[in-house]
Write a structure and sequence with these properties.
- Helix 6 packs parallel to helix 7.
- The model has no long low-confidence stretch (mean pLDDT about 90).
- The longest helix is centred in the middle third of the chain and has 18 residues.
- This protein is α/β, with parallel strands linked by helices and about 325 residues long.
- The chain is globular, with a radius of gyration of 20 Å.
- It starts with a strand and ends with a helix.
- The strands form two sheets. Strands 7-8-9-3-10-11-13-12 form an eight-stranded mixed sheet, sandwiched between helices. Strands 1, 2, 4, 5 and 6 form a five-stranded antiparallel sheet that branches.
- It contains twelve helices and 13 strands.
- It has a single domain, classed as Rossmann fold, CATH 3.40.50.300.
- Helix content is about 35%, strand content about 25%.
- It binds adenosine-5'-triphosphate (ATP).
């Protein structure tokens, strides 16, 4: 059974459509990367999974199911129960998710309840030094604070961990260490991961599947290596070409051409059409329905055409 299902989700902030009919599925035990340029809607989608959107956000259409439960239609008590039982969250800024007035051990004891063992949970995130439990958040490095936030998020053995760029603010070596801990702990605990990221090579390496967002929709999804190595959507191909790993030494990165999607008003057709080298007239006014290309589900009118498929190969 699908652990997470997002169907045609539309979320508006005042004056901005952040999600414009997003679709996503995540199976039990799976790791799914969610990638896309800034403003494509990743954080809004991640927050919607736990109905953790800011008060100004409005759901227009669509639904989010976690373990079959309709997150947006649950009464407050059932929603709290669902969050506790099924969901854990880690964000980019760990300090913001920790209580500055309480020592780490005390924060863990609050989550774990009586009988919980903070040292065990800190050990699971490779913080074995007993001084950590006695520290206040401001006494920790960024990487250590993020591991504490992870220990708190994983303390209730959630079925799904939503990780919103938890390593983006860390330097590269610490980033790898923290990512290792997240994926190893989730694998050990049988927890699925929704991993929001700008780091395409890391997603290709670590995640089973990937979903690529553009203009508030998931425009391509499928096995991570396949999607990022042999993209089918022209946007994914442009994104993969602009990724650091795609550049040979000394060769400048190719930026995705044109300005990013302005999400202020929903696009009548494909949101990428104004930037797309393959756009034809219908792309501007007709929304693409999903097509299957190899193992990928793609929102593009032309992705299945042989000439367009060939042109998407990275480096082509
Ligand atoms: N609290 C908010 N109020 C108003 N608009 C918002 C709010 N949060 C996000 N937005 C807008 O919604 C759209 C989607 O933003 P979101 O943060 O979900 O994208 P993102 O892909 O996570 O970006 P980033 O990678 O920069 O975090 C953007 O146009 C953004 O400006």
């Amino acid at each position: 059974m699908s652990l997470l299902t997002v169907r045609n989700l539309v979320i508006d902030y005042p004056g901005t459509r952040a999600l414009d009919g997003a679709d996503l599925d995540l199976a039990q035990g799976e790791t799914l990367g969610l990638v896309g340029e800034s403003g494509s809607g990743k954080s809004t989608l991640g927050a919607a999974v736990g109905r953790l959107l800011p008060p100004s956000a409005r759901r227009g259409e669509g639904e989010v199911l976690v373990a079959g439960e309709p997150v947006f239609d649950l009464p407050a008590k059932r929603l709290r129960h669902l969050r506790r039982r099924h969901l854990g969250f880690v964000f980019q800024d760990p300090i913001a998710s920790l209580d500055p007035t309480k020592r780490v051990g005390a924060q863990l004891r609050l989550v774990l309840g009586r009988g919980g063992d903070p040292a065990f949970h800190l050990g699971r995130v490779r913080l074995a030094d007993p001084r950590v439990a006695r520290s206040y958040p401001h006494q920790l490095s960024g990487g250590m604070a993020q591991r504490v936030a992870l220990a708190l998020a994983m303390a209730g053995s959630p079925e799904l961990l939503v990780a919103d760029e938890p390593t983006a603010a860390l330097d590269s070596q610490v980033r790898e260490e923290v990512s290792d801990v997240v994926f190893a702990l989730a694998a050990e605990a049988g927890t699925s991961i929704l991993w929001l990221s700008h780091d395409l090579p890391a997603v290709a390496r670590r995640c089973d599947r990937v979903a690529v967002m553009y203009g508030g929709r998931v425009v391509e999804r499928g096995p991570a290596r396949e999607v990022l190595g042999r993209p089918a959507h022209p946007y994914t191909a442009a994104l993969a070409r602009s990724s650091p790993a795609a550049a040979a030494p000394g060769v400048r990165l190719a930026p995705v051409p044109g300005p990013p999607a302005g999400a202020r008003r929903p696009a009548p057709g494909c949101a990428f059409a104004p930037r797309c080298a393959f756009a034809v007239e219908r792309c501007a006014h007709e929304r693409p329905a999903p097509v299957r290309v190899r193992e990928q589900d793609v929102l593009c009118h032309r992705a299945a055409e042989p000439a367009v498929r060939a042109a998407q190969e990275v480096g082509a």
